[in-house]
């Protein structure tokens, strides 16, 4: 019975010109013919994720750029974006631009450390902390990375300490020993 209800909702949505236009755009972008089952799945994103036709189309465009237009992949993008409060093409483009900048920074730091891999989750958190919380410039981060050239095992934690010590020095914070506190 649930599938009958869903198909009835989908039929009503198909009567909507905006939805019909969305399916035409998706077929053009993905170069596929959308079946009735696929239409139901796509329209469920509108109901389940409160997605707009605009964000769904943008998600297909994004997927197409990456060579992935299957519904599972695009549906995950739509869900992720709507959970982040992205509902328009402009929202998505702004978000993607910020992500490109962030990933450029991650990649640049890893290259400076001599790592030929993407950063792990904790490494991304630390790098983001340097920029967002500490307000470090890219040059300050790269200078701190350069200080790892003298150690046998360069790592993010070492760079983090270099940046924290520099900040303490710049702000005049004094290291207080445990013994001093106890007195």
What coarse outline follows from CA principal-axis ratios? Answer: elongated
| Overall pLDDT score | 87
Report on the biggest sheet.
none
Percentage of helical residues? Answer: over 70%
Give the DSSP E fraction (strand runs of 2 or more residues): under 5%
Distance between the termini: 74 Å
Number of strands: 0
In N-to-C order, the SSE pattern is: HHHHHHHHHH
Structural class: mainly alpha
Put simply, the count of helices is 10
Low-confidence parts lasting 5 or more residues at pLDDT below 50?
1-5
Radius of gyration: 24 Å
Distinctive features:
183 residues; mainly alpha; 10 helices; elongated; disordered N terminus
What topology emerges from the helices and strands here?
Layout: H1 2-15, H2 17-30, H3 36-49, H4 53-65, H5 71-83, H6 89-112, H7 121-132, H8 138-146, H9 156-171, H10 178-182
Helix pairs in contact: 1-3, 2-4, 3-5, 4-5, 6-8, 7-9, 8-9
Task: Give structural notes.
The chain has 183 residues and is mainly α. The chain contains ten helices and no strands. Helix 3 packs parallel to helix 5 and helix 6 (89-112) packs parallel to helix 8 (138-146). The longest helix has 24 residues, at 89-112. It starts with a helix and ends with a helix. The model is unreliable at 1-5 (pLDDT under 50).
Summary?
By secondary structure, the protein is mostly helical. It has helices spanning 2-15, 17-30, 36-49, 53-65, 71-83, 89-112, 121-132, 138-146, 156-171, 178-182.
């Amino acid at each position: 019975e649930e599938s009958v209800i869903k198909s009835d909702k989908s039929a009503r949505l198909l009567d909507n010109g905006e939805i019909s236009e969305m399916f035409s755009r998706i077929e053009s972008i993905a170069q596929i013919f959308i079946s009735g089952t696929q239409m139901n799945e796509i329209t469920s994103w509108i109901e389940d994720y409160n997605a707009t036709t605009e964000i769904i189309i943008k998600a297909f465009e994004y997927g197409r750029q990456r060579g992935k237009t299957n519904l599972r992949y695009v549906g995950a993008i739509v869900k992720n974006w709507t959970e982040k409060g992205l509902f328009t093409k402009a929202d998505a483009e702004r978000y993607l631009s910020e992500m490109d900048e962030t990933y450029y920074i991650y990649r640049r730091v890893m290259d400076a450390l001599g790592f030929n891999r993407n950063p792990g989750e904790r490494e991304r958190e630390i790098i983001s902390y340097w920029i967002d919380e500490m307000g470090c410039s890219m040059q300050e981060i790269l200078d701190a990375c350069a200080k790892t050239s003298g150690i046998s095992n360069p790592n993010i934690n070492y760079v983090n300490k270099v940046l924290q010590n520099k900040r303490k020095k710049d702000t005049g914070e004094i290291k207080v020993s445990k013994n001093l506190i106890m007195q």
